[in-house]
Sequence to fold (744 residues):
Amino acid sequence: MEKNVFWDSIDYIQLKTKEILSKVSDKDIEKVKKLFFESNRIFLYGAGRSGLVAKAFAIRLVHLGYQTFVIGETITAPVQKGDLVIIVSGSGETIPAVMTAEIARNLDANVVSITGKRNSDIAKFADITVYIKAGCNEKERKKYAPLGTLFEASVWVLLDGIIADLLDSKKETEEAMRSRHATLEQ
Amino acid sequence: MEKNVFWDSIDYIQLKTKEILSKVSDKDIEKVKKLFFESNRIFLYGAGRSGLVAKAFAIRLVHLGYQTFVIGETITAPVQKGDLVIIVSGSGETIPAVMTAEIARNLDANVVSITGKRNSDIAKFADITVYIKAGCNEKERKKYAPLGTLFEASVWVLLDGIIADLLDSKKETEEAMRSRHATLEQ
Amino acid sequence: MEKNVFWDSIDYIQLKTKEILSKVSDKDIEKVKKLFFESNRIFLYGAGRSGLVAKAFAIRLVHLGYQTFVIGETITAPVQKGDLVIIVSGSGETIPAVMTAEIARNLDANVVSITGKRNSDIAKFADITVYIKAGCNEKERKKYAPLGTLFEASVWVLLDGIIADLLDSKKETEEAMRSRHATLEQ
Amino acid sequence: MEKNVFWDSIDYIQLKTKEILSKVSDKDIEKVKKLFFESNRIFLYGAGRSGLVAKAFAIRLVHLGYQTFVIGETITAPVQKGDLVIIVSGSGETIPAVMTAEIARNLDANVVSITGKRNSDIAKFADITVYIKAGCNEKERKKYAPLGTLFEASVWVLLDGIIADLLDSKKETEEAMRSRHATLEQ
Fold:
């Protein structure tokens, strides 16, 4: 029955995302949060769907008042010492992602990688690697959550959790966030 | 304790997303799926974070072999009779979203709106409106899931469920999807 | 001979661009330049190829040290009183362009429109309209410079002229501009 | 006088662009045009302002009926044997541009590089390199056309010349181009 694939997939993605997020290292999250208070500007990088997840995070950081840039967009800035560069990459091994981490490291920026592969190339250049244990060999995975679906859904929620935490730490409010929302969004 | 806000938010977003998705109309999902088999090309529109959710869906549709365009990107095409235009808009009332729906309707395209507000302006021009009941007046919502967070997380998963369903209906495989994946992603 | 169309087109575009630029009002350019010194942040808007011309200008403004945003990109900000909103629109009548001008005006921003049609809708909401006399009924135009080609090429050069002027007025140097160039451009 | 810098810059950019374009190899342009008739799909790549020039070309190729993709945008496709990959890069040496050329070459695509540096790294992987002699040590250059301004303005016009030529060769018309223009451009 066609109908069931939709609902089964919805359930499967949510169940696995919950499982994956429960395994994220609390210590790593603490370290990432600390970097937000020690860094100047925030730069996000990601390709494909991981890039969209990174951009969604960037939008909320702007709402929280952080000076934020998305690497590859029209308006960006040179990364400098003391900036925070966050790279989202499922494999942790695509050349542009690894190169971005390496260059950022050489510029003395703080580098965080969020990746689905432990000991990936990108980890070598990152101060902190948040490891998302999204790999999964179950047969259902291919059917209900093809390609990077579990990684991306997990990181989407994880980053919104960081937003809620920063919102609290900075004693900001939803209203203040709304006031920083784009008025001329197309 | 700062720590708890992160984990509480993660839990809250997942709990509410589950609740919200369980209320989506099965009949509407069936109608949307049917349109995928009756339409020619697929066009996606959304602004801000809703736009990112729409783009993530577009990427997977390309992997499934659909000719897909994102309205507002460099490469797009004129919408024509028989095309499917899907608009993601939390409020269902921002002018560009409503205008996109109206123009698409006038061009005899099939129009689907995915929105968090029942009876919104956009619904007038849509053949099908998938209503996402993400509104929520709980105090915790502002703290753990500010602004459109619940709407966006819910639609992200919902659209991945549609992907799984189309994958099954079209008898496609994850491997075939991977072969349509961009090789030169930056 | 195929060959000649390429070279004839190159010549034609340059000849016409020169003619078009020579008719731009010096007084209007002076007024636009003045606004750069009286405004806070700069916002650019344009669709299609006009949007690309606007973005090219935005990149250089960043190099000159202006806080600049491109409306519609991931990272943007709410337009406020005292900001400068510049809209590039060949027809001056597309709904999103006119709407952007109207909203910006209502927010008490300074609004500049650069358009190919005198007395277009957008002019009603603009403090200054830089009129680019790119309309041309010559037969060769359709062959050598189809659609908005002359408007876009003219505005590209015009905006680079404004950059040179601001570079001089602000006593900036090419070296300082280079230091603000993105280091992690993808 | 401030005023003069604007007009002097406009004149300077146009004068130099004319000079630069007159030195482009006619033989190389012929070879590029030939590739348009021998290739399947067209892929464009460029970063920063060069990327905007590449995108402007991509939009017109769509108007001419070519299946065109911009590398790095949401909707793209895997490059395959027989596709044409065109890379615009002033220096011809930025890592992502060179890497794009190398990967495209390894995939048996036809590779064209448009660059301001003869014998650049990118040329090693390109079937054809269109060399734009935009380098210029004149003092005025820094003042009137900082950074890559001359390269970008020259390539903008050059690519519009190729469009006019393809328009003629394919016996297309401006009207047909307009009919392929996006109707829902934001």
